[in-house]
Amino acid sequence: MENTEALIGQADNQNIPQHVAIIMDGNGRWAQLQGKGRVAGHKAGVESVRQVVATARKSDVKALTLFAFSSENWQRPAKEVSVLMDLFMYVLTKEVKRLHKHNIRFQVVGDLSRFSDKLQKNIAKSEQLTAENTGLVLSIAANYGGRWDIVQAAKKLASDVKQGTMSLDDVNEDTLNEQTCLANLPTLDLLIRTGGDYRISNFLLWQAAYAELYFTDTLWPDFNETQFLKAISCFDHRERRFGKTGEQARNEKT
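Predicted structure:
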């Protein structure tokens, strides 16, 4: 294993992504490889969340968004969904205090209406506790889907146009972006997916338009500080052109 301290030292001099998002995939397969039930993988994945949050904070990442529960995940076995909800409650009641101690602002994005009243109240309480923190912003995407995000943003603009508070000519990429989840955060720079699949599974479709994509075969419970720093190092070596030529992009850096 590479020396973690060395990787952290390298990261200090790198072009650090301001906003990183992660599809935390592979919990179930990890558990099966261990001869355990799928829910054991989700519990083991909590430690990976802790390590990634701590490393992002130390590396001066400004925003970290984790895909915890998609709008399609309700189709999973009832027992697994129940465990995920219990883990969510655990994070809200235990881990948020630790986040607050480290000046991390916590928020949950997605359609929260399907969650229990108790869970919704705990989410609001956790967000309120950390609302004034000025460090890393940790966003948990729960009952979230990229298509849903775009549709709900479009509905808000359509309502404004209908009510006459804005004109149709005012509807553009900027005004739609303002209505999407995470509009208050830096533009998404790096999207990581663990677990070996090469797709983004309806996650941050709007926000990922020019994000760098990083795929790894590592299953989420095995994704640790070193793995996260490798992803940041890979990002640093990417040439981001945003539609321009490579020469133009390089000249802008000089």
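Summary: The first helix runs from residue 4 to 12.
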